[in-house]
Task: inverse folding
């Protein structure tokens, strides 16, 4: 039986974004994110710096979420937080804060799996947008994960395939770094690729059995390709930057598109639900939309505000956990490698 009225404060701190949201059942009342610009100077997330930044940002971002939702903390009925996976130090900050607040307010505590949240974000109430129907093929694409998942119910998820090495978002960022682009490089590659030719340069697409993917090979091939051409022409990158970005982006996306098509066909799943930061990529969204026109697929792409790490996705996951009376305990531990 669904709860009649849940006011959930959700906290997300799995990596380098400190986020808090307030939900009333399936409706988002506020969704606040405090980014950590400190990592840009290092070309990637520094775990110790991330956890320290969470400590300084978590109180202000929670206060802002409550203020924007226009509710008092005494109106809350549950506290949710990301239990894992993610950076352990970062997870501990969010988890410790959530436990302390739940204890102080005598409220239920709901631990949430970060990657499940990326898929369940599609069940947030949004005018005119239908919810996916079970079962569906869930695809999580981020800096740390690339997964194909058969989703039979809100929390009955079967991992079909994953990356054997690097995630797609990591490949974007590390190849972008090779070209001298700022961190995170993914959005810059997406922007520059708009003016490039995706077929200007060819990079290898790994052939793996099953639903597994690999991105380390293309990262190595891309790096070697750049070095060979820089040896001949020191200005190669600057002279071909748009084409390099377009060709790289095309290849990275073709790798996962091939596996999505394979899994959808073999598993008989026609609803494809995308989640994670790379779901914001315009070429991916275009390719998937085009696939939907040519197949029987129904594609569910999250609004851009719900692609990157956010607390709304933690809140909606907590809501459905509460409907099934799945609550946590103060003794629950954060887990950097939490499984489904």
Result:
């Amino acid at each position: 039986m669904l709860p009649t009225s849940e006011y959930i404060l959700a906290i997300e701190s799995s990596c380098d974004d400190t986020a808090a949201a307030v939900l009333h059942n399936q409706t988002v009342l506020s969704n606040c994110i405090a980014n950590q610009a400190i990592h840009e100077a290092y070309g990637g997330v520094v775990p110790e710096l991330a956890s320290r930044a969470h400590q300084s940002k978590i109180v202000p971002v929670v206060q802002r979420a409550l203020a924007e939702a226009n509710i008092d903390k005494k109106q809350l009925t549950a506290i949710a937080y990301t239990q894992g996976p993610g950076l352990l130090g970062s997870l501990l900050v969010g988890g410790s804060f959530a436990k302390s607040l739940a204890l102080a307010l005598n409220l239920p505590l709901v631990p949430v799996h970060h990657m499940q949240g990326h898929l369940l974000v599609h069940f947030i109430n949004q005018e005119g947008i239908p919810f996916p129907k079970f079962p569906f093929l869930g695809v999580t694409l981020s800096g740390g994960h690339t997964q194909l998942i058969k989703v039979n119910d809100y929390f009955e998820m079967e991992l079909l395939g994953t990356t054997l090495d690097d995630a797609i978002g990591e490949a974007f960022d590390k190849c972008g770094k090779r070209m001298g682009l700022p961190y995170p490089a993914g959005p810059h590659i997406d922007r520059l690729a708009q003016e490039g030719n995706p077929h200007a340069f060819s990079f290898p697409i790994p052939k793996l059995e099953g639903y597994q993917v690999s991105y380390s090979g293309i990262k190595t091939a891309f790096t070697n390709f750049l070095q060979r051409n820089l040896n001949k022409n020191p200005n190669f990158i600057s002279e071909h930057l748009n084409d390099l970005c377009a060709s790289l982006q095309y290849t990275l996306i073709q790798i996962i598109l091939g596996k999505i098509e394979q899994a959808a066909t073999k598993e008989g799943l026609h609803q494809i639900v995308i989640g994670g930061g790379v779901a914001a990529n315009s070429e991916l969204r275009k390719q998937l939309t085009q696939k939907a026109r040519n197949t029987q697929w129904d594609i569910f792409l999250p609004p851009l505000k719900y692609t990157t790490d956010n607390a709304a996705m933690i809140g909606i996951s907590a809501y459905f956990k509460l409907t099934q009376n799945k609550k946590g305990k103060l003794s629950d531990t954060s887990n950097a490698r939490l499984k489904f």
User: Anything to note?
Assistant: Residues 132-302 form a domain with the Nucleotidyltransferase; domain 5 fold (CATH 3.30.420.40). The longest strand covers residues 27-35. The first helix runs from residue 47 to 69.
